[in-house]
Fold this sequence. Notes:
Elements: E1 32-34, H1 42-45, H2 49-56, E2 65-68, H3 73-86, E3 89-92, E4 98-103, E5 108-112, E6 115-120, H4 125-143, H5 150-159, E7 167-170, E8 174-178, H6 183-196, E9 202-206, H7 214-221, E10 225-230, H8 241-252, E11 257-259, H9 263-273, E12 279-283, H10 286-295
Parallel strand pairs: 1-2, 2-3, 8-12, 9-10, 9-12, 10-11
Antiparallel strand pairs: 4-5, 5-6, 7-8
Amino acid sequence: RFQAAQCDIVVLEVGLGGRLDATNVIDVPEAAVITRIGLDHTEILGDTVEAIAAEKAGIVKPGGAVVLGDQDPRVRGVVEQVCRDQGAALTEANLGEVRFHSSSLECQHFGWRQYPDIQLALLGEYQLQNACTVLNTVETLRSRGWQIPDEAVLAGLREVVWPGRFERVRRDPWLIIDGGHNPQCAQAIAASLREYFPGKKILFLMGVLADKDFEGIYDALLPLAERIYAVTPDSPRALTADKLCERLADEYHFTAAKPYGSVADALKAVLAEAGEKDVICVCGSLYMIGEARRELGLR
């Protein structure tokens, strides 16, 4: 399909892992990009970040160029060794190069190398790391002969939209949608909520899959929760809303959780009960946030 479309260059996203993923049949890519690694799909990729990093680093090919966006020294060590073995050039996206200016619920302003003032439409410190990874990837592509104008880079960061990633879809009350579904993502959601809504307790509309790290997710998010509107994601792997509420009561003594029969019912309830100054966060499962976006009339 890419060939039929006569693409000049393709962003080919790995489906799962890297080493054994179907996308890895390609020849040496112009840049192999490895973003921040979390403990997810552990039953397939391994239960340590080192094991998962080794699977991700399977996309590194002899003589290629690699951009690493992960700052975990355990991950860095694995990727560095693979790059040495493959004779690949490694560039690390160092967040220390970012000159942070300001942040609001509209955008983040920062500088990086030759760019004194970049506007980033995505919120959260982890998005600054992602932007740093993007900028390093652009420089890697330029070094390989690709002509990428500065204005295209700046416009891309200024106008980028990432549905389901700390997506602000409504005000008064604020309604945030985030597809985060592992402990690392939950920690990022919690950090962003604390940054942009300091001191606020959050109304969570949540559903999770039974094979996810329940404790890792709720250890991060529950300290911020005022109430939880629990739903069952549309997946055979889902943890039921009733069971979610039971586990929160049994394991965390959190009793302000109520199950709902559908995402539509839960959305209706939380929007009816929220005040203008409240903050609603829909998160926990990509399956569930897709349904929530449809209910809200979003594509």
